[in-house]
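step 3/5: co-fold with nicotinamide-adenine-dinucleotide
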Amino acid sequence: MNLERRTKKSSKRSVLVTGGTGYIGSHTVVALIAAGYNPIIADNLSNSKASVLKRIEKITGKLPLFYKIDLRNTTALNKIFQKNSITSVIHFAGFKAVGESVAEPLKYYENNIQSAISLCKVMDRHKVKKIIFSSSASVYGEASANPIKESSATATTNPYAHTKLIIEEILKSVYVADPEWRIALLRYFNPVGAHESGLMGEDPQGIPNNLMPYISQVAVGRHKKVNIFGNDYPTVDGTGVRDYIHVMDLAEGHVAALKKIDTTIFSVPRVINLGTGKGRSVMEILRAFEKASGKVISYRITKRRPGDIAVCYADTKLAKKILGWKTKRNLADMCNDAWRWQSQNPKGY
Ligand code: NAD
Ligand code: UDP
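step 4/5: write tokens
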């Protein structure tokens, strides 16, 4: 079935990057500038720092335009669209901590869903109808088979993942009402690593929830040991298996998706996995990080983390077919770059 129609090729474009001072957003801004786009950032700095902007400038030679706004503030958002000729949007902004979403569900529903609705309303008002949305592999829950295809059933198990699925549905409905919209719903697997310069990376507030930043912080002495959440899973060594993807590969995946929606009309909103297609266990990650850092990483095995699944890795065929994109960086690159960032910036930005 032919799902796409070719359209006229576009020239250099202004792209609104919501959440652009955050971890994935900031790396994507660097990739966008490298690809000749003009990124404009909107972020309320609830989980990021403005100092990342100087790092972007240091890497790219360009200080991106930045607006400190909450996306739910439709009036402030509208002003950004009035002042700039924005042609497309990459929507990263949102809260992302699974555990916190279980403890404070309303905070997650309110922020993530209201932000998306506010954004779509303002985009519609300004006839900007191209959007790439940050969805997540968490929408699959415990998939019945790996690698996980986009056609796999969704089975969300926490409010964070529910918000991702709800926003996907909102965007699909927006498309049904107006098929001029071009929508890419990108489901990320486990983004890790940092820009190769060591100037930008992941800077979690408080104790990291995710494995790689926790290991990095143990390596620089901020914590004593990594807690490995269970070694009795049916996996290669009993520890959980995930699809870790280098954040710059992920960033470049967005550039590929943007080029695609700039030049092609998707006849339906497209759901696309962004991952490497390879599963790695917690122990494999820990050992690879030891190699990259030259440090011994102490660990202890603790009980399973509630809600965790055994194995999750992507089927990447669709990304290759539709976007002509696949990952270039390997696990050693992920660990070397994460270590360069963490060792040069032990306390983050
Ligand atoms: P991040 O927290 O580093 O970045 C998100 C940014 O959004 C932050 O800078 C925050 O200040 C901003 N923000 C939040 N609510 C806002 C609001 N109402 N108005 C304006 N700005 C707001 O997170 P990240 O890791 O860069 O993730 C980016 C996106 O990718 C998120 O939507 C996340 O759910 C999704 N995602 C992340 C992962 C991951 O493991 N990092 C995996 C899958 C999907
Ligand atoms: N994990 C761990 N210790 C930690 C954090 C995570 O053992 O401090 C494990 C977790 O059980 C999972 C994998 O590492 O198997 C990746 O977890 P993360 O939170 O980074 O990502 P998730 O896939 O859960 O979104």
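step 5/5: annotate
The pocket of uridine-5'-diphosphate (ligand 2) is lined by residues 190, 209-211, 214, 226-229, 240, 242, 282, 305, 308 (CB under 6 Å).
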